[in-house]
Amino acid sequence: MKTRKPTLEKISPEFGSSLRVIKNEAYIGENKPFWHFHPELELVYVNKGKGKRHIGNHLSYFNNSQLLLIGSNLPHHGFTDRLTVNGSETIVQFRPDFLGEQFFSAPEMETINNLFERAKNGLLFGIKTKQKLGQKISKLPEKKGFKKILVLLEILHSLSKTDDYTILNADGYTFETQPQDSAKIDKIFAHINDNFKEHISLDDIADEVSMTVPAFCRYFKKVTGKTFTKLVNEYRVVHATKLLSESQMSITDISYECGFNNFSHFNKLFKEFTGKSASKYRSELKLVVQ
Q: Read out DSSP for the chain?
C-alpha cells in the first residue's frame, strides 16, 4: 500500500509575533483538514469536542477533550470533527528555536528541550494534565507580547515535568517529508521576497509554479491559512517598519518604496497589522531611542 505524501504547511505568525496562536470556537466547514507537516511544534487543546487523531502511523478517536504536543515535521491530520456546546480548540504553533538557536540549550531549559525531543513521536497528555493546564492554554490567545511568551513557557515547563502522557507514534515510523510541495511553496515565498516591492499579479505567481489561478489560490490558502494578497501585504508592512526605524524617508515615500501605490491603503493596512498608524509607530521609536 502506497502512503500518500504529506503536504508542507507554511506557518506564518501574525505581525509582530514569533508564534501562531489560533482559537476555534465553531467548526468552519470550508477549512477542511489535510495530511501535512511543518517544522513548527504544535500544541493542541480541545476542551469539548470529538474527532480523529491521525499522527504519524497512529490513528484513534476522541469523544470529549484532548491535549496534544506534536513535534517538528511529524505528519498529522486536522483533529476536530465537531465542537460541542461551549467547545473550543486552541492551537499554538512555534519553531523549536523561536526564542533563539541557543535558548532551549541552556541548562535551565533541559527538561523542555527533552520534551521537544519526545514530541517528535507525538504526545497525548492525560486527564490530570488537561485539568491543570487546559484553561491556561485556552486563555493564551488573549495574552499579548511578553506575557504570551511567559505563559507559553510556563505551560511547556509543566508539560516537561509530567509523566502523565502517552507516546502516539511509538514505533517511530516516519513518512517521507520532502514532497514536491516543499519545493513549490519555497519557490512561491522566494518570488514574494524578491518582488514584493512591485505589483505581483496572481497570473504571474500562478504561472511561476505552473498552476491555474483558481488552483493556486486554493493551494496557497490551504498551506498558509492566508490569502496571497494578505501575505504579500504583510511582507510590505514588515519592510515599512524596517524603513521607518532605519531611514529618514518620508512616510509617503516609504509606502511607495514598499510596493503600495495608494497611500491611504498603506495607512489602513499598516494600522491593521501593527495596531497603530505609521506616524505613531515612528514617533514611538524616536522616544525609545531617546
A: -PPPPPEEP---PPTT-SSEEEEESS--TTS----EE-SSEEEEEESSEEEEEEETTEEEEESS-EEEEE-TT--B---EEEE-TT--EEEEEE-TTTT-TTGGGSGGGHHHHHHHHHHTT-EEE-HHHHHHHHHHHHTGGG--HHHHHHHHHHHHHHHHH---EEESSTT--------HHHHHHHHHHHHHHHHTTS---HHHHHHHTT--HHHHHHHHHHHHSS-HHHHHHHHHHHHHHHHHHH----HHHHHHHTT-S-HHHHHHHHHHHHSS-HHHHHHHHHHHH-
Q: Number of C-alpha atoms within 13 angstroms, CB side, residue 176? A: 9
* Average confidence score pLDDT of the chain: 84
Q: List pLDDT tens digits, range 223-275.
A: 777 889 988 988 888 888 888 888 899 999 999 999 998 999 999 999 888 88
For residue 18, give the nearest of 97, 73, 108 by alpha carbon: 97
pLDDT given for residue 117 in this prediction? 92
| Number of residues assigned to the chain | 290
Residue partners of 266: CB distance under 8 A and separation at least 6? 240, 255, 258, 260, 278
pTM of the entire structure? 0.66
Q: How confident is the model at residue 126 (pLDDT cuts 50, 70, 90)?
A: very high
Interatomic CA distance for residues 95 and 67, integer angstroms: 19
Which pLDDT tens digit goes with each residue over 114-123?
Answer: 999 999 899 9
Question: Identity (one letter) of the amino acid at 57?
Answer: N
pLDDT at 241: 85
